[in-house]
Amino acid sequence: MRVFTYILWSILLSLFVVSCGSYWNQPVTNKSARIGELTSGSMKLKNMPKPTEQVVAGVYNFRDQTGQYKNIETGSSFSTAISQGGTTILIKSLEDSGWFTVVERENLGNLLNERNIINTTREQFAKAGNTDQKPLPPLLFAGILLEGGVVSYDTNIITGGSGARYFGVGGSVQYREDRITVYLRAVSTTNGRVLKTVYVSKTILSQAVSANLFKYVNFQRLLEVEMGYTVNEPVQLAMKDAIEKAVESIIIEGIEDGLWKTKDGDVMDNFLVSEYKKEKVIDESTLLHDRKQRFRHTKNEVGLSGGVALLDGDLKDKKAGYSFRLDYTRNLSSSFAWNLNVNPMQLKTGKSFKNQLYSIDTNLRYMLLPNDNVSPYVYGGVGMLGDYFMLANRKGKDDFFFKVQYGLGLNFNLSDDFSLFAYGEHHLPFTDKLEGVKSGKRNDFYYTGGIGVKFYF
């Protein structure tokens, strides 16, 4: 027991050493101001190919449209859940991309007032005899307006964790995921037409890891050790990442629609659009909580699997024998399929009983999550069981028995052509003679289970 406790505690400590970078960089001193952190999309946006000509863009307001306030356990809070500086973040992203010349529109009144002050001052100098006063140049007008905002901030879309404790040694991991969503659209200032609209979402992760030891190491000597940390992804950085991704998307979709082009020519334009479409297909096939979808158009499946068979009959000793299965499946719809399989197996029971059996089964299968990469399924049907070595030598006895079976399984998609699967079945033959002993009122039955590989065509 003591050795197991030390091993468990060592594993917990190793987890902290290997994966908990935040734990080993805890703040213990004051830090000076620093330049803001980059997100995953910052460098990608800065490294984009440059345009043939920058687009003059104006941003009047990119605001928080959720109206949400921070959640606190007690009382009320007047602090907003997300940053109110969306316009500033968007302008910074537009500048970083190198595709836009951004003109001031958020505080246009201040700009106009300052220009009036300059003009008034110059007029006064002109009246005083200083004739070298030139009028101010006209303001730069925007070719497009970028509008939109943060449309949702969903908290606790998924929460969970895990933990274990054994003889005073334990640890736990907890997590929570929030989600922020932004919309961005480009509007033509000449005719008011909405040129493009993009939609981007970003998850915000919070994690808590803890480990503890509570154990008597000697008589009246109690050892208590606790360690842990909590990491919350900053909402502002998540918002910045989402806005940068929206800017990247609107640039590439504008290239696709011929609104603007890169100075590197059609080859670079086609490459950017092609890569973006690949990413878009993956993102659009992924549901909430990272449920990746795979839409197959093939109708046929061939599978090969191996596993074990366990007989539950009249003899006391239960032993596992081998089981192999070759099956063909025809998909009738996205969820339903018809299956036919051949299953050679060995049933073992008692002290020395062994028997070779063969079954041919047909089933109707239902996939619970037909388009997910990991999908459970259930099935059931009828079959025919043959015993060539024992029953064939019994005069006047049938060589085959009819049966029913049902089971459940789990499918793991590896690609469009292959997948792994695991299954477990319960078989109910209409006989009490599988092990050569007829006793009691109930019939014999057996279980099979295994893992295998499946090919789609």
Structure in words:
With 457 residues, this protein is an alpha+beta fold. It folds into 2 domains: 41-105 and 142-292, 3-Layer(aba) Sandwich (Rossmann fold), CATH 3.40.50; 300-456, Porin (Beta Barrel), CATH 2.40.160. The chain has 6 helices and 17 strands. It has helices at residues 2-19, 42-46, 86-97, 108-127, 235-256, 266-284; strands at 55-58, 63-64, 100-103, 144-166, 169-188, 194-218, 221-232, 286-287, 291-292, 300-312, 318-331, 336-349, 353-367, 374-386, 400-413, 418-429, 445-456. It has an 8-stranded antiparallel beta barrel. Strands 1, 2, 3, 4, 5, 6 and 7 form a 7-stranded mixed β-sheet that branches. 22% of the residues are buried. The model is unreliable at 389-397 (pLDDT under 50).
